[in-house]
TrEMBL record:
Family membership: Belongs to the iron/ascorbate-dependent oxidoreductase family.
Keywords (A to Z) from UniProt: Iron, Metal-binding, Oxidoreductase
Keyword Metal-binding included in the entry's annotation: yes
Domain Fe2OG dioxygenase: 128-255
Keyword Nucleus: no
Cited InterPro entries: Oxoglu/Fe-dep_dioxygenase_dom, Pro_4_hyd_alph_FE2OG_OXY
Name of the molecule in the record: 2OG-Fe(II) oxygenase
Short name of any one Pfam family annotated for the protein: 2OG-FeII_Oxy_3
Native species: Endozoicomonas gorgoniicola
């Protein structure tokens, strides 16, 4: 348990060293408390709910979202095209919706440009610009079962999956539930073989591991409103059921080598 504790870190601001520790899996999870203050979080959540249409993941229909995750489009060519056709518009929509506040994704982009030697850029996949800035919405009905986010599995054979060497998840929590909504993380980068072996057999959970077949998580963290949390998304992770609304703005950050820009997508 001590080793796991050392793998979580709390900080006031993000540094290059912390990012590298996340990419290398020396840190399992990094938390920046009050990255956004409570008033900004309340204002942004309200604006987002009022101005942006909520949908549900096509392949995880219990999880609400605004914009679309690349993962949803991987086995549906129409959805795939829609994702790329709308990506710039969805980025702009979030920016406009947050104005005059900064959208959490724009805050991240500026921060990465300042701290990473080659800055950051929105990812492209075989020449098509991706979307970044998915708002994820969990209600009392929803949770995320144990899963991994690995671009090589979602977009095999593409230029992006060839160049991304490490992937971390970025989440800023604008609304958090009174109970539940914790992140569970396993200190375990499961192989594709492990995934097939321990896969959830229910249709709505094709992305997930079956909890009854895998060990308990190594870490349970309850995000507070305004927190920024980063973790290596190749590790198995999950979100426990929430007692009420939980809204986060999220994306992935891909490491493509020390001399390349970081790439961002949702
Ligand atoms: O909402 C969260 O806390 C984490 C969600 C997740 O699975 C991810 O960001 O990859
Ligand atoms: Fe995830």
């Amino acid at each position: 348990m001590n080793t796991i504790k050392m793998k979580t870190e709390v900080a006031n601001c993000l540094t290059t060293v912390q990012l590298k520790n996340l990419f290398n899996n020396n840190t399992l999870l990094l938390r920046l408390p009050e990255f956004f203050d409570p008033f900004s979080c309340a204002t942004l959540s309200q604006k987002i709910h009022q101005r942006m249409p909520l949908g549900f993941y096509e392949n995880a229909p219990k999880i609400g979202r605004i914009g679309k995750a690349f993962y949803e489009t991987i086995s549906n060519p129409d959805s795939h095209d829609e994702y790329f056709q709308n990506s710039s518009q969805w980025i702009e929509n979030l920016r406009k919706c947050c104005f005059p506040y900064i959208s959490p994704i724009d805050a991240l982009r500026v921060m990465l440009d300042d701290l990473w030697p080659k800055g950051s850029t929105v990812a492209s996949l075989d020449g098509r610009r991706m979307f970044v800035g998915l708002a994820r919405y969990f209600t009392s009905e929803s949770s995320a079962e144990p899963h991994q986010d690995i671009i090589q599995r979602d977009a095999p054979g593409t230029d992006l999956s060839a160049k991304v060497q490490r992937q971390i998840a970025f989440n800023v929590y604008l609304t958090t539930p009174e109970y539940g909504g914790e992140i569970e993380i396993w200190d375990w980068i499961a192989t594709q073989e492990d995934f097939y072996r321990f896969k959830d057999s229910r249709t709505d959970f094709a992305y997930a591991f079956d909890r009854t077949l895998i060990p308990e998580a190594d870490l349970l963290i309850k995000p507070n409103t305004g927190d920024l949390i980063l973790f290596n998304s190749n590790n198995v992770h999950a979100v426990t059921p929430s007692s009420d609304d939980r809204l986060s703005i999220s994306c992935f950050i891909g490491y493509c080598g020390d001399d390349s820009p970081l790439v961002l997508w949702s």
